[in-house]
Recover the amino acids of this structure.
């Protein structure tokens, strides 16, 4: 967590609130006379796996050693444990609420488990209504009603420096002797070990494996033997490529003792059973010579040196920026590239959507761009992805309302989509009304209707572009009613007729009924505990010194 960040302060406040809550609960428990017997403490310690030895039983030596490592005396630990157990008993006593009434559980269960059966079709707006053409007044009215949707956000321009170790690495010179030393010091890094492509047939007994082995040795096809003796098809035979270190020692020696195409005598598997293995292909050990490895090693050494250099660069940048020097002058002084962005929003969107300018990926960039004042460079920031960043705001274009002339093309598109959707919905509702509660909807709309699996209130039917809006409409309908709802993406109409209502059955789904009861009980317990917590805070004067939080976090 970055010190000074909003997240760090939020985390600190959350921890403080928890400490205060724990203290208040412990004090209340003590005031109510909740005590912890020595036998309870002893049983808790003896059952704590932290203090178990290798045999899995409590060990006084492990107990003492663990406390010593944690910097706790036995008395201090017992005091902490006593408070924890006292607090736990206090909370458990508060949460000892009676179970919810059966009538309530039953009604909620039936409500949640109720399902709907419907016939549904999704018909595009284009099919139901033609493309509309607006009048000037209609477009102006639509724009006036949605003017806020077309408002221009605040845009900012800036000069900035963003440099990474990779940028500095290009200027680093590495002596060939250092490259050679790095190559020689890690010989294994440049060796691709010998590999084998294995096919395998597993057997439960040695005799079965030997019988299959003799068949293969006599000329039978390995894949055919696998199918006849173990029911394994050819596609399931291949295990993949393996080096010696990838295999158990019992397997590696015999496997790497044969050539490609040969079968290894049956081997007892360390995991049980017997294995008949065929080396389908082999790759010899490959050593990358120094000449081929040199560019890669040199680049790695350059990057390592650049990472060390960047700390010195950060100090130099700090000194220059702190003196009030602009980003442009700082970049020139340190021979770094000054970069620019022009009119960018707080979400990183250029005002000119066709702009080819690059917005930095570093998450700190936009924060600094919209935090700083104009012509005041930010401090040097070490970005989360390992770079150094300085931002200087050079221009601010305040948020404003755009005119219709500026956004007319987009307003036209939006109006046409909205108007066509309205007309399509009206057409669909008229057709559905004409069909009535028993008419053939498929014939009326000249399309196919589907009947998906029954669905609950929080489930969308398993049909593309059908969302929870349709579900809500059907749960407000009666059998025979037809509803028309905009599709999930707004480009079509969902026509759905409710066919049946399936009630929840607590007898058939006893586990679901129990789950509802437990959920209600947990909710009651949570409410009681929350009310108790609120009462404790109301009765106790608790203040947090925000200046100290700011100072330490």
């Amino acid at each position: 967590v970055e010190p000074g960040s909003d997240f760090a302060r939020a985390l600190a406040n959350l921890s403080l609130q928890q400490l205060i809550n724990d203290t208040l609960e412990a004090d209340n428990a003590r005031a109510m006379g909740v005590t912890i017997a020595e036998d309870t403490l002893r049983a808790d310690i003896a059952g704590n796996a932290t203090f178990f030895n290798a045999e899995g039983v409590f060990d006084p030596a492990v107990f003492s050693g663990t406390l010593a490592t944690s910097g706790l005396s036995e008395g201090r630990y017992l005091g902490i444990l006593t408070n924890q157990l006292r607090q736990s008993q206090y909370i458990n006593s508060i949460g000892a609420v009676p179970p919810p009434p059966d009538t309530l559980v039953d009604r909620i269960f039936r409500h949640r488990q109720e399902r709907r059966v419907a016939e549904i079709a999704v018909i595009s707006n284009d099919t139901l209504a033609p493309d509309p053409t607006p009048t000037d007044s209609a477009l102006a009215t639509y724009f006036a009603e949605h003017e806020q949707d077309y408002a221009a956000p605040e845009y900012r321009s800036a000069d900035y420096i963003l440099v990474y170790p990779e940028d500095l690495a290009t200027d680093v010179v590495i002596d060939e002797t250092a490259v050679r030393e790095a190559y020689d010091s890690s010989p294994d890094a440049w060796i691709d070990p010998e590999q084998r492509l294995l096919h395998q047939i597993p057997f439960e007994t040695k005799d079965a494996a030997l019988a299959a082995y003799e068949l293969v040795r006599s000329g039978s096809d390995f894949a055919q033997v696998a199918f006849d003796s173990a029911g394994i098809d050819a596609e399931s035979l291949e295990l993949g490529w393996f080096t010696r270190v990838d295999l158990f020692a019992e397997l590696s020696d015999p496997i790497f003792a044969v050539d490609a195409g040969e079968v290894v005598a049956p081997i007892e598997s360390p995991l049980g059973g017997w294995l008949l293995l065929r080396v389908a292909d082999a790759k010899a050990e490959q050593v990358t010579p120094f000449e081929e490895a040199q560019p890669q090693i040199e680049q790695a050494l350059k990057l390592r040196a650049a990472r060390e250099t960047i700390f010195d660069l950060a100090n130099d940048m700090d000194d220059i920026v702190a003196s009030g020097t602009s980003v442009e002058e700082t970049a020139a002084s340190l021979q770094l590239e000054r970069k620019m962005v022009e009119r960018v929003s707080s979400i990183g969107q250029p005002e000119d959507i066709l702009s080819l300018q690059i917005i930095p990926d570093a998450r700190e960039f936009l924060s600094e761009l919209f935090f700083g004042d104009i012509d005041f460079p930010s401090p040097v920031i070490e970005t989360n992805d390992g770079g150094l960043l300085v931002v200087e705001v050079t221009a601010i274009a305040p948020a404003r309302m755009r005119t219709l002339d500026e956004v007319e093309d987009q307003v036209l598109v939006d109006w046409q989509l909205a108007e066509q959707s309205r007309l399509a919905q009206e057409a669909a509702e008229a057709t559905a009304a004409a069909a009535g509660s028993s008419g053939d909807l498929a014939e009326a709309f000249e399309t196919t209707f589907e009947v998906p699996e029954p669905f609950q209130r929080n489930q969308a039917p398993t049909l593309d572009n059908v969302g929870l809006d349709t579900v809500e409409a059907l749960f407000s309908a009666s059998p025979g009613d037809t509803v028309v709802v905009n599709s999930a993406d707004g480009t079509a109409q969902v026509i759905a007729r409710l066919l049946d209502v399936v009630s929840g059955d607590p007898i058939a789904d006893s586990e679901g009924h129990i789950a509802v009861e437990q959920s209600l009980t947990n909710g009651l317990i949570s409410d009681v505990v929350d009310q108790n917590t609120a009462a404790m805070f109301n009765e106790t004067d608790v203040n947090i010194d925000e200046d100290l939080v700011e100072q330490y976090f």
About this structure: Residues 166 and 314 are 15 Å apart (CA to CA). The chain has a mean pLDDT of 89.
